[in-house]
Design brief:
- The chain is of the alpha+beta class.
- It has a single domain, classed as Sandwich (Jelly Rolls).
- About 20% of the residues lie in helices and about 25% in strands.
- It is built from six helices and 15 strands.
- The protein has helices at about 15-25, 35-50, 70-80, 80-90, 170-175, 175-180, and strands spanning about 5, 25-30, 55, 60-65, 95-105, 115, 125, 130-135, 145-150, 185, 190-195, 200-205, 210-220, 225, 250-255.
- The longest helix has 17 residues, at about 35-50.
- The structure holds 2-oxoglutaric acid.
Length: about 260
Protein backbone atom coordinates (compact mmCIF):
# COMPACT_ATOMS: atom_id res chain seq x y z
CA UNK A 1 0.00 0.00 0.00
CA UNK A 2 1.38 3.40 -0.96
CA UNK A 3 2.30 5.66 1.96
CA UNK A 4 0.14 8.57 3.07
CA UNK A 5 3.25 10.57 3.95
CA UNK A 6 6.20 11.71 1.86
CA UNK A 7 9.30 13.13 3.51
CA UNK A 8 11.18 16.10 2.07
CA UNK A 9 9.02 16.29 -1.01
CA UNK A 10 9.17 19.92 -1.99
CA UNK A 11 10.76 19.40 -5.39
CA UNK A 12 9.96 15.82 -6.04
CA UNK A 13 6.49 14.40 -5.59
CA UNK A 14 7.02 10.66 -6.04
CA UNK A 15 4.84 8.24 -7.99
CA UNK A 16 4.04 6.53 -4.69
CA UNK A 17 2.70 9.81 -3.33
CA UNK A 18 0.65 10.41 -6.47
CA UNK A 19 -0.81 6.89 -6.19
CA UNK A 20 -1.67 7.42 -2.50
CA UNK A 21 -3.34 10.77 -3.25
CA UNK A 22 -5.44 9.33 -6.05
CA UNK A 23 -6.46 6.30 -3.97
CA UNK A 24 -7.17 8.04 -0.65
CA UNK A 25 -7.96 11.62 -1.66
CA UNK A 26 -5.23 13.14 0.53
CA UNK A 27 -1.53 12.89 1.33
CA UNK A 28 0.95 14.55 3.70
CA UNK A 29 4.28 15.93 2.50
CA UNK A 30 6.84 17.01 5.04
CA UNK A 31 9.24 19.88 4.39
CA UNK A 32 7.21 21.53 1.63
CA UNK A 33 8.86 24.75 2.72
CA UNK A 34 11.71 25.19 5.20
CA UNK A 35 11.11 26.02 8.86
CA UNK A 36 12.64 29.47 8.26
CA UNK A 37 10.25 30.12 5.38
CA UNK A 38 7.33 28.86 7.48
CA UNK A 39 8.22 31.35 10.23
CA UNK A 40 8.54 34.19 7.67
CA UNK A 41 5.11 33.31 6.24
CA UNK A 42 3.57 32.86 9.71
CA UNK A 43 4.58 36.41 10.59
CA UNK A 44 3.30 37.70 7.24
CA UNK A 45 0.02 35.80 7.68
CA UNK A 46 -0.56 37.17 11.17
CA UNK A 47 0.23 40.72 9.99
CA UNK A 48 -2.04 40.34 6.94
CA UNK A 49 -4.80 38.92 9.11
CA UNK A 50 -4.58 41.91 11.45
CA UNK A 51 -4.58 44.42 8.58
CA UNK A 52 -7.31 42.97 6.39
CA UNK A 53 -11.02 42.32 6.65
CA UNK A 54 -11.65 38.76 7.76
CA UNK A 55 -14.57 36.40 7.68
CA UNK A 56 -15.12 34.96 11.12
CA UNK A 57 -16.71 31.54 10.91
CA UNK A 58 -18.25 31.24 14.37
CA UNK A 59 -15.47 30.33 16.80
CA UNK A 60 -14.11 27.82 14.29
CA UNK A 61 -11.49 30.04 12.66
CA UNK A 62 -10.89 33.40 11.06
CA UNK A 63 -10.54 33.20 7.32
CA UNK A 64 -8.74 35.68 5.05
CA UNK A 65 -9.66 34.91 1.48
CA UNK A 66 -7.63 35.86 -1.61
CA UNK A 67 -4.79 37.39 0.35
CA UNK A 68 -2.50 36.68 -2.66
CA UNK A 69 -4.14 39.54 -4.53
CA UNK A 70 -3.06 42.19 -1.99
CA UNK A 71 -0.07 40.82 -0.09
CA UNK A 72 3.12 40.17 -2.10
CA UNK A 73 4.71 37.97 0.58
CA UNK A 74 1.67 35.68 0.88
CA UNK A 75 1.39 35.68 -2.93
CA UNK A 76 4.89 34.20 -3.09
CA UNK A 77 3.64 31.29 -0.97
CA UNK A 78 0.30 30.82 -2.77
CA UNK A 79 2.03 30.70 -6.16
CA UNK A 80 5.28 29.11 -4.94
CA UNK A 81 6.67 26.97 -7.80
CA UNK A 82 6.97 23.95 -5.48
CA UNK A 83 3.29 24.27 -4.60
CA UNK A 84 2.04 24.67 -8.15
CA UNK A 85 4.26 21.86 -9.47
CA UNK A 86 3.07 19.52 -6.71
CA UNK A 87 -0.67 20.11 -7.21
CA UNK A 88 -0.28 19.76 -10.98
CA UNK A 89 1.41 16.36 -10.52
CA UNK A 90 -1.08 15.11 -7.95
CA UNK A 91 -4.18 16.23 -9.86
CA UNK A 92 -2.77 15.15 -13.23
CA UNK A 93 -4.67 17.81 -15.21
CA UNK A 94 -4.16 21.52 -15.98
CA UNK A 95 -5.25 23.63 -13.00
CA UNK A 96 -6.06 27.20 -12.13
CA UNK A 97 -6.08 28.98 -8.77
CA UNK A 98 -9.55 29.20 -7.20
CA UNK A 99 -8.61 31.09 -4.04
CA UNK A 100 -6.27 31.05 -1.09
CA UNK A 101 -7.08 31.62 2.57
CA UNK A 102 -5.21 32.19 5.81
CA UNK A 103 -6.97 30.07 8.44
CA UNK A 104 -6.28 30.97 12.06
CA UNK A 105 -7.66 29.09 15.02
CA UNK A 106 -7.25 31.22 18.12
CA UNK A 107 -5.72 29.69 21.26
CA UNK A 108 -8.33 27.71 23.21
CA UNK A 109 -11.02 28.30 20.60
CA UNK A 110 -12.87 25.19 21.83
CA UNK A 111 -14.41 24.65 18.42
CA UNK A 112 -13.45 22.03 15.84
CA UNK A 113 -13.91 22.44 12.12
CA UNK A 114 -16.44 19.65 11.65
CA UNK A 115 -16.31 17.04 8.90
CA UNK A 116 -17.13 18.35 5.46
CA UNK A 117 -16.27 18.19 1.80
CA UNK A 118 -15.16 21.45 0.16
CA UNK A 119 -16.53 21.22 -3.34
CA UNK A 120 -20.25 21.43 -2.46
CA UNK A 121 -19.61 25.04 -1.30
CA UNK A 122 -18.22 26.13 -4.65
CA UNK A 123 -20.09 27.51 -7.68
CA UNK A 124 -18.35 25.27 -10.18
CA UNK A 125 -19.15 23.00 -13.08
CA UNK A 126 -16.65 20.83 -14.98
CA UNK A 127 -14.25 20.57 -12.05
CA UNK A 128 -13.47 16.95 -11.28
CA UNK A 129 -9.93 17.33 -9.89
CA UNK A 130 -10.13 20.14 -7.29
CA UNK A 131 -7.13 20.02 -4.94
CA UNK A 132 -6.17 21.99 -1.82
CA UNK A 133 -2.82 22.38 -0.17
CA UNK A 134 -2.95 23.17 3.56
CA UNK A 135 0.43 24.45 4.73
CA UNK A 136 1.29 24.51 8.44
CA UNK A 137 2.97 27.81 9.33
CA UNK A 138 3.57 26.62 12.90
CA UNK A 139 3.76 23.17 14.46
CA UNK A 140 0.24 21.74 14.43
CA UNK A 141 -0.27 18.64 16.60
CA UNK A 142 -3.84 17.27 16.92
CA UNK A 143 -4.35 19.47 20.02
CA UNK A 144 -3.75 22.60 17.93
CA UNK A 145 -6.07 21.59 15.07
CA UNK A 146 -4.32 19.53 12.41
CA UNK A 147 -6.38 17.84 9.69
CA UNK A 148 -8.10 14.44 9.85
CA UNK A 149 -9.27 12.74 6.64
CA UNK A 150 -11.60 9.87 5.73
CA UNK A 151 -9.83 7.98 2.93
CA UNK A 152 -11.47 6.96 -0.30
CA UNK A 153 -14.69 8.99 -0.34
CA UNK A 154 -13.59 11.64 -2.84
CA UNK A 155 -15.82 9.99 -5.44
CA UNK A 156 -18.95 11.18 -3.58
CA UNK A 157 -20.04 14.08 -5.76
CA UNK A 158 -23.72 13.95 -4.86
CA UNK A 159 -23.83 15.63 -1.44
CA UNK A 160 -25.26 19.03 -0.48
CA UNK A 161 -23.03 21.55 1.36
CA UNK A 162 -22.36 20.48 4.94
CA UNK A 163 -22.43 22.64 8.07
CA UNK A 164 -18.88 23.25 9.38
CA UNK A 165 -20.26 23.76 12.88
CA UNK A 166 -22.40 20.60 13.07
CA UNK A 167 -20.62 17.33 13.91
CA UNK A 168 -23.47 15.29 12.37
CA UNK A 169 -24.04 17.24 9.18
CA UNK A 170 -21.90 15.10 6.85
CA UNK A 171 -22.75 11.82 8.57
CA UNK A 172 -26.49 12.45 8.41
CA UNK A 173 -26.08 12.74 4.64
CA UNK A 174 -23.72 9.79 4.31
CA UNK A 175 -23.85 7.43 7.33
CA UNK A 176 -21.23 5.00 5.97
CA UNK A 177 -18.56 7.69 6.27
CA UNK A 178 -19.04 7.78 10.05
CA UNK A 179 -17.78 4.21 10.45
CA UNK A 180 -14.92 4.37 7.96
CA UNK A 181 -11.28 4.66 9.16
CA UNK A 182 -9.99 8.18 9.84
CA UNK A 183 -6.43 9.38 9.42
CA UNK A 184 -5.12 12.24 11.57
CA UNK A 185 -1.97 13.91 10.25
CA UNK A 186 0.02 16.08 12.70
CA UNK A 187 2.29 18.51 10.87
CA UNK A 188 5.42 20.48 11.77
CA UNK A 189 5.93 24.04 10.53
CA UNK A 190 6.61 23.84 6.79
CA UNK A 191 4.84 20.50 6.29
CA UNK A 192 1.60 20.31 4.35
CA UNK A 193 -1.32 18.11 3.48
CA UNK A 194 -3.01 17.94 0.10
CA UNK A 195 -6.65 16.92 -0.25
CA UNK A 196 -9.15 16.43 -3.04
CA UNK A 197 -12.06 18.89 -2.91
CA UNK A 198 -14.48 16.08 -2.08
CA UNK A 199 -12.31 14.21 0.45
CA UNK A 200 -14.11 14.45 3.82
CA UNK A 201 -11.98 16.18 6.45
CA UNK A 202 -12.09 18.02 9.77
CA UNK A 203 -9.70 19.80 12.13
CA UNK A 204 -9.75 19.64 15.91
CA UNK A 205 -10.27 22.60 18.19
CA UNK A 206 -7.14 24.42 19.29
CA UNK A 207 -6.68 23.60 22.97
CA UNK A 208 -3.17 25.10 23.17
CA UNK A 209 -1.88 28.54 24.20
CA UNK A 210 -0.62 29.30 20.67
CA UNK A 211 -2.64 30.31 17.61
CA UNK A 212 -2.86 27.74 14.82
CA UNK A 213 -1.81 29.47 11.64
CA UNK A 214 -2.29 27.67 8.32
CA UNK A 215 -2.36 28.81 4.71
CA UNK A 216 -4.64 26.90 2.36
CA UNK A 217 -4.60 27.25 -1.42
CA UNK A 218 -7.27 25.73 -3.63
CA UNK A 219 -6.80 24.82 -7.28
CA UNK A 220 -9.47 23.64 -9.73
CA UNK A 221 -9.48 22.19 -13.22
CA UNK A 222 -8.41 24.88 -15.71
CA UNK A 223 -11.62 24.18 -17.68
CA UNK A 224 -13.92 24.89 -14.69
CA UNK A 225 -16.97 27.02 -15.49
CA UNK A 226 -19.15 29.15 -13.19
CA UNK A 227 -22.48 27.48 -12.41
CA UNK A 228 -24.41 30.58 -11.34
CA UNK A 229 -24.55 29.81 -7.59
CA UNK A 230 -23.74 32.45 -4.97
CA UNK A 231 -20.20 32.52 -3.53
CA UNK A 232 -18.20 35.26 -1.83
CA UNK A 233 -15.38 35.00 -4.41
CA UNK A 234 -17.55 35.20 -7.54
CA UNK A 235 -20.48 37.36 -6.35
CA UNK A 236 -18.68 40.69 -7.08
CA UNK A 237 -17.69 39.62 -10.60
CA UNK A 238 -21.09 39.57 -12.31
CA UNK A 239 -20.32 36.33 -14.13
CA UNK A 240 -22.93 34.60 -16.24
CA UNK A 241 -23.58 30.89 -15.66
CA UNK A 242 -21.38 28.91 -18.05
CA UNK A 243 -18.54 31.47 -18.04
CA UNK A 244 -14.98 30.14 -17.83
CA UNK A 245 -13.15 31.61 -14.84
CA UNK A 246 -10.75 34.15 -16.28
CA UNK A 247 -6.98 34.05 -16.11
CA UNK A 248 -6.22 37.32 -14.35
CA UNK A 249 -8.17 36.51 -11.16
CA UNK A 250 -7.89 32.74 -11.44
CA UNK A 251 -4.47 32.14 -13.05
CA UNK A 252 -3.57 28.87 -14.70
CA UNK A 253 -0.64 27.28 -12.81
CA UNK A 254 1.99 24.57 -13.05
CA UNK A 255 2.10 24.28 -16.83
O1 LIG B 1 -8.11 24.66 8.87
C1 LIG B 1 -9.20 24.18 9.16
O2 LIG B 1 -9.65 24.22 10.31
C2 LIG B 1 -10.01 23.49 8.11
C3 LIG B 1 -9.44 23.68 6.76
C4 LIG B 1 -10.27 23.11 5.67
O3 LIG B 1 -11.33 22.61 5.86
C5 LIG B 1 -9.74 23.19 4.30
O4 LIG B 1 -8.65 23.75 4.07
O5 LIG B 1 -10.42 22.69 3.38
Amino acid sequence: MAAQTQSGGANNISQQTIDAYRRDGFVRVSGMISKEEAEKYRQAAVAAAAANKSLTVGDIFTQHVNIWRSDPVMRSLTLHPNVTAAVRKLAGVPLRLWHDQILIKKPHNNTPTEFHQDQPYWPHANSTHPISIWIALCDVPPERGCMTFIPGFQHRDDLAPQNLGDANSLFDMCPEMQWAPRVTLPVRAGDCTFHHGRCPHQANANSTDQARVAHAVIFIDACTTYNGAKHVVTDPLGLKAGAVLEDELFPVVGE
